[in-house]
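Input (structure):
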């Protein structure tokens, strides 16, 4: 695993490891099974207590945050592996994005930081990261440990209502959102498609997002919320909005 890889490079590495053909919409579920140490579990009416019960039935003692909301997805990672829980009643487009989002969290927030610590301190630190033993004074003194989560890593992804006015991207989610999109709607494919759509005279963001959603197999509202429901002139809040703004600027200057 590379150190601090760009989203584009990390996504390329992910798909190269999966050895799947570059077809769209992308089969992210199969790719995750081939490329990452992650299991995927689909549950109806996904909530934190349902995930907790499933884990307990399997003899896995993890304490999930208290959350009564219905979830799109949940990630539980421990000892270098993890489980992604998704709502099995969601449409395939919702499931595709949820899987990409949770896989992004697994990589960015758990697996890559964990590997960086192991590379820096050696394999003996694995037992500390996994909660098998306490860190020694020397290990605790190393500041690098302050940048990695000890024990299990848990992330909940509450359901969205599809309202374009909702604030979908929060600061803590930016990196996972951008990597999730790069996994299923890579920049190298997105830019030419956007140029083609603009060349046909499309200007409404909702129309553009519907077409992009159909091509990449994503909910249109996900793409709409990522440009922050402010039209094509909105301030960029992600790489997607940045691409939209730059292409529109290039066309206006022709």
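Output (sequence):
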């Amino acid at each position: 695993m590379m150190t601090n890889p760009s989203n584009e490079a990390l996504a390329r590495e992910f798909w190269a490891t999966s050895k799947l053909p570059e077809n769209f919409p992308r089969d992210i579920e199969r790719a995750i099974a081939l490329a990452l140490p992650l299991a995927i579990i689909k549950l109806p009416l996904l909530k934190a207590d349902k995930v907790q019960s499933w884990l307990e039935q399997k003899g896995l003692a993890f304490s999930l945050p208290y959350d009564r909301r219905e979830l799109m997805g949940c990630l539980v990672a421990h000892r270098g592996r993890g489980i992604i829980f998704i709502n099995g009643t969601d449409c395939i487009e919702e499931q595709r994005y949820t899987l990409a989002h949770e896989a992004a969290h697994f990589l960015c927030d758990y697996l890559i930081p964990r590997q960086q610590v192991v590379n820096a301190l050696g394999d003996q630190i694995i037992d500390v990261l996994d909660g098998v033993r306490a860190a020694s004074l020397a290990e605790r003194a190393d500041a690098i440990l302050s940048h990695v989560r000890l024990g299990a890593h848990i992330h909940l992804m509450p359901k969205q209502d599809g309202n374009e006015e909702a604030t979908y991207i929060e600061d803590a989610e930016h990196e996972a959102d951008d990597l999730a999109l790069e996994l299923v709607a890579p920049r190298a494919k997105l830019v030419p498609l956007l140029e083609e759509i603009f060349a046909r005279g499309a200007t409404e963001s909702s129309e553009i997002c519907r077409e992009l959603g159909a091509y990449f197999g994503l909910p249109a509202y996900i793409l709409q919320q990522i440009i922050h429901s402010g039209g094509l002139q909105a301030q960029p809040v992600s790489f997607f909005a940045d691409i939209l703004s730059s292409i529109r600027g290039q066309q206006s200057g022709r």
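Notes: The first strand starts at residue 38 and ends at 43. The chain has two domains: 7-165, 187-252.
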